[in-house]
Design a protein that fits this description.
The complex is a heterodimer. By secondary structure, chain A is an alpha+beta fold. Chain A has five helices and seven strands. Chain A has a five-stranded antiparallel beta sheet, with no helix packed on it. A two-stranded antiparallel ribbon of chain A has the order 2-3. Chain B contains three helices and six strands, in the order E-E-H-H-H-E-E-E-E. The chains are: A alpha+beta, B alpha+beta. Strand 4 of chain A pairs antiparallel with strand 3 of chain B.
């Protein structure tokens, strides 16, 4: 019997998409696997903390990002079915990275990925300077620095500044300030 | 059966130095599909973004989109209207003021709020947003771009 066929009105695993019992069991098992001891982001971060990682902006990564937000602008296509990797075309020559793609990956840097994920954290704000277009295929370094922890209307926020640079030639592509609301 | 051949000349969308303050951008419309919200590159790391049971346990009415998805929607609208100029010496600021719940239909919008001479062109400021179809505002922001500078 489907989870959604039961009488009580509490949310069910298959409320929002059709699933068999096997799929539902797989989802519950996956969620259980995510359970781990963790602390709040507020407690995890100290002002001055700096973290840095390198990200390869492969054509496949760009496609995965753009497909999920249904953005099919051809400027972002460095990968095409049947042909696979291509040079692509944009006003800057070859394919370029969607303007806010790297901003999406900052979360994976400012949250120390070697520690358990900080529960109850919500991204609430970003102020992003787009300085230069990023060619698909670029290797970028994302560096985050905690610059403030503050409380506003009873809520706790952690502010970071972010730099995105070309790992090979140092070009500054993006500068950003962003806030995370913490439990 | 009639075939719909209507289309917009996409080049006509582009903001130029002659575009007046008050010009309204044509947005994009998207549905917050649970399958996309929970894809590996987006929300899979946090079941609040795709699992109704987990979301309810943490006090949410339904799984919520990551804020960056509405940022991406607004950015798509900006690329449509601004083109290459959106990728150099531009700025985009967004505040996520309300959660986008699974299955909500989101429409982006924007308006030119200011323009000031800069170099040979103009520095434009736009107010931008993402609403659900009932008009509830989810994300607000501003965009600044150089046009023909």
């Amino acid at each position: 019997m489907s989870d959604s066929a039961t009488n009580d009105r509490s949310p069910k695993t298959d409320d929002l998409r059709p699933m068999t019992e096997v799929q539902m069991a797989q989802e519950r098992a996956f969620i259980k696997s995510l359970e781990e001891e963790c602390q709040t982001y507020w407690d995890m971060v100290e002002v001055g903390d700096e973290l840095s990682r390198v990200l390869d902006l492969t054509p496949e990564l760009v496609i995965l990002y753009a497909d999920a937000v249904e953005d099919f602008n051809p400027w972002f296509e460095g990968w095409k079915m049947n042909t696979w990797r291509i040079e692509g075309t944009s006003p800057f020559g070859g394919a370029i990275v969607p303007p806010l793609l790297v901003s999406h990956f900052v979360l994976s840097v400012q949250f120390d990925h070697t520690k358990p994920f900080a529960i109850g954290s919500i991204h609430t704000y970003h102020n992003t300077e787009l300085i230069e277009p990023i060619p698909v295929g670029t290797q970028v370094r994302i560096t985050t620095k905690a610059i403030d922890k503050y409380e506003k209307r009873g809520r706790r926020y952690v502010r970071h500044e972010v730099l995105v640079t070309d790992e090979n030639n140092g070009t500054l592509y993006i500068r950003e300030v962003r806030d995370i609301l913490s439990l | 059966m009639a075939i719909d051949n209507s289309f917009i000349d996409l080049e006509s969308l582009r903001i130029t130095t002659d575009t007046p303050v008050g010009f309204e951008l044509t947005g994009v419309k998207k549905k917050a599909l649970i399958q996309l919200m929970g894809s590996r590159l987006w929300g899979r790391f946090n079941p609040n973004h795709w699992d109704p049971v987990y979301a309810a346990e943490t006090g949410l009415d339904a799984p919520i989109q990551t804020g960056e998805m509405s940022t991406a929607y607004i950015a798509e609208m900006c690329v449509n209207h601004i083109g290459a100029a959106f990728f150099r010496n531009a700025r985009m600021e967004c505040k996520y003021i309300a959660s986008i719940l699974a299955n909500e239909v989101i429409v982006t919008g924007g308006v030119v709020s200011n323009k000031t001479p800069k170099g040979n062109g103009m520095r434009f400021t736009l107010d931008v947003w993402a609403d659900n179809v009932d008009g509830e505002r989810k994300t607000v922001g501003t965009v600044e771009v150089d046009i023909d500078v």
